[in-house]
Each structure stands twice: as C-alpha cells, then as structure tokens.
C-alpha cells in the first residue's frame, strides 16, 4: 500500500521527468549522547515548476532534509538514500560536484538574509558576482542584470538601491536581495527555508510576492519550508507534513487543508486562526512537545500527543497509507476514522486547558 500510493502521488505530481527526486533519505548525526535520527526515510518528487510546501514543528527535520539535498551537512552526518537532480545522483558527490549544481541549478534561501549577504560589499556587487560565477558575461552585463533582478523582486528605485550595502536596507528588502541572488542563474529549483519567519506580517507578504515573481521569471520549482501552514496556503500546489524526521502526510493543498487524515495535520490546522468561522470556534493547539530524535520509541512518535491513540500506536509505527484520493497519503493506523472530522472534534479545547490529551470520542460527535 505504502509504496504503491507513493508512486501514484509521484506520477500525478511529476508528470514526465521530475526535476528533483528524493528517495528514502535518512540522515543521522552521531553525538556523544547517542545517534540523532534527524531524517527517517523521506521521499518526494518535484515536477518542473511545481511549488511544494514542507511544514512541521521545530526540530522535525525540515532543514536537515534540504541541507542534505544541497550537500551542506557536516561530514559527520551519516546520509543514506538517494537525491537525484534531473536524474543525476547528488549524494556522494565531492564538494566540486555539488558546486556545479548549487547556486546555479538549485538555489537556496535561508531564514536570516544576513547570513547569506556579505556586509562589506554592495548588494549590486553580490548579485553581479553570483552571475559572473556561472556565466561568461562582462561586468557591465552582470551589473545591468543586477538592477533588473532587484526590480523583479519589487525593490523600488533599483538603480540607486543596487549601490546600497546590506545594513542600509530593511530586513524585508535584504531578503528580497537574497531572492534576487537565488534567481540570478535561472535555477530549476529554489529551496526557501523559512524565508519569512524573521519578518513581520506585512513584510512577509512582500517577500512571498517576491518569491512568486522569482518563480514566474525563472520557471523554477519551489520547495517552501515553514512551520506555518498559513504561509503555504496561497503559495504551494502540494504539501508534505513532517513530524519527528518523517513525512506523515502528503497531498494537494486542498486535500491536506480540507480532508486531512493524520491527527498531527489536524492539530496544525486547529492551531491556525480561521477567519471564516469569525472566532466562534476556539483554537485547539496540540498539547505537549515533539519527541527527542535520539531515543525514539518503537511506535508512532505522535502517540503521547494524539487523542486517537490506541495500544497498537505504541507498538508499531504506521506506514504512509493511501486514502480515497490517489496520491493523498497519511501515516496513521486510524486514518479512515478521520473522514469528515474537524480539528475541533479531535483536539477538544479542554486538552489545551488542562495540559493533558483528551481522548477523542468521534462516534458520539459525528
Ligand atoms: N549538526 C547536527 N548535529 C546533531 N543534531 C543535529 C544537527 N543538525 C540538526 N540536528 C538535529 O536534527 C533535528 C532536525 O533539525 P532541523 O534543523 O532539520 O529541524 P527543523 O524542522 O528545520 O526545525 P526549525 O523549524 O527549528 O528550523 C533536530 O533535532 C536537530 O537538533
Ligand atoms: S498512529 Fe495512532 S498515535 Fe499515531 S497519529 Fe495515528 S492514531 Fe495517533
Ligand atoms: Mg529549520
């Protein structure tokens, strides 16, 4: 069931050749206290031009998954599985082998733009350098292109702004400069890791617009990583939900938002303010915190926080099961019981009030 449904999803999402294929990716970090199982068998395929969101709480393995794709993990990390860019294996490549791809074919945008920008050079010079690193063009052409790229990401007066140093710009503008650098070489994939988390809400919207503009101009596929499902809604075609190093639900945005089949996804949805209900329904946050990835128990890692948990959940970790929609998969032994269930029914508000998990009684509530 698992393998079959994954293949269905991938056929539907990646008609023809996938631009990026991640298959059964695992990442472990040996530490003095034990082995951290940061990523545990993640698989996804990204079609050309597609936008995929990866959502999950802090520590669920979102960044480590992307750092493995980009070849940016420390040497101590033990990585298995496969990462293919246009059919070519990336795992096991030398630093030089990754350098051909990184920045040119796959570009990455991090949460804090200051880590990506050099404080002692103007933003124009940094964009031009990114262009010159991979293209045989004159400095004049690279500089002109830098102005164009700043205009594309919505920076006003780009002819003047191109001469600014990073500290002369606001946080939102700096992040747009980083997006301009990511676009500079017309990449096939842009991976944006929490690109708006450090910014206030109005600026977040501008940065997301800049990302959309970058996608439109380059035709790149996008992997948008966030802990906020609300950010993904208008900016992705499909969603992968991560929990404790695994993908626990995959589907289209509509499937994940309106027909979720994994209690953790319902929990994330219940934590979102929903304007349509005008505040009539209380938020239903998930009680407790995610498990340590060092000593994971044998069963479903969501068991201690799950209102639907049964004894089997402590014994056996669920596979990704297919649902009634081809390609929509969820890792829950009881996914069929969640048809038509709302977050408010599953996570009763009393759970948050008492700090303990109230078992769900779906039969009486449906
Ligand atoms: N170099 C490392 N050595 C040991 N453990 C690590 C290392 N890098 C990451 N981890 C661990 O791997 C797990 C996954 O981390 P990751 O950064 O991918 O989480 P995340 O989902 O991106 O979280 P956030 O939303 O906070 O960015 C965490 O438990 C983290 O502590
Ligand atoms: S497998 Fe069990 S504990 Fe895990 S999400 Fe499903 S019901 Fe909850
Ligand atoms: Mg992260």
Automatic annotation (TrEMBL):
Its main location: membrane. Pfam families: ABC_tran, oligo_HPY. It is found in: Cell membrane. InterPro entries: AAA+_ATPase, ABC_Ni/Peptide_Import, ABC_transporter-like_ATP-bd, ABC_transporter-like_CS, Oligopep_ABC_C, P-loop_NTPase. One of its GO terms (molecular function) is ATP binding. Residues 20-269 form the ABC transporter domain. Keywords: ATP-binding, Cell membrane, Membrane, Nucleotide-binding, Transport. It is a peripheral membrane protein. The keyword ATP-binding applies. Belongs to the ABC transporter superfamily. This is ABC transporter ATP-binding protein. It comes from Planosporangium thailandense.
